[in-house]
Amino acid sequence: xxxxxxxxxxxxxxxxxxxxxxxxxxxxxxxxxxxxxxxxxxxxxxxxxxxxxxxxxxxxxxxxxxxxxxxxxxxxxxxxxxxxxxxxxxxxxxxxxxxxxxxxxxxxxxxxxxxxxxxxxxxxxxxxxxxxxxxxxxxxxxxxxxxxxxxxxxxxxxxxxxxxxxxxxxxxxxxxxxxxxxxxxxxxxxxxxxxxxxxxxxxxxxxxxxxxxxxxxxxxxxxxxxxxxxxxxxxxxxxxxxxxxxxxxxxxxxxxxxxxxxxxxxxxxxxxxxxxxxx
Length: 279
Prior knowledge:
The chain is α+β, with helices and mostly antiparallel strands.
């Protein structure tokens, strides 16, 4: 599933291309992709409106239009935004199309596994939408005092906590592993075992890894590309994710994998020694 760096890459790719364009047509090819019935009536009102901006919240993309309408997209596992020439044939996985006045290219949303969804909502109400209202803070914006406060009374294991979107928004399996490696913390470490310096190191690792991944346009492990079809290359800089049994770049120890909550977690047993006692 695309995580914060991949979604941010798409947003930065789309924003300068879409802003100011006027919608000439909206085509919904797979109605079940809509999150709710209300979205259908609102989508019909997009024609003739200009794009005001494109933004991200957690792992979701919002395209804002003038006069208080927004489209919210969740890519889930295989969702993609791609620009195509209008005359290019549709493939069977294309579910939604936005065309723009005076443009030869249109924006198509395709999703092979059909897990992604779209919601159309009032822009002013977006923060209260079911998909967004429970999200935790943005990891690139959070300061240390709020970050420290988030951990108070938390006993969950660090890996589970980092990928909990209600705790902090945007981090998934790949980047949680890379962040914990940078912070030298074992994925099974209980959150309440961390001291102040551990938390400072963890926050630094979160921001550092995510910014570095964005600079490399995200990780293209399976389907991810930006709207121009370009792949990211941060997968070439992974320290632990997907590197089971390969030597750690720092110490040479073999990278291990464990299962946690049905997900694989990769870590270096030497660099990320598990904490057994409270600090």
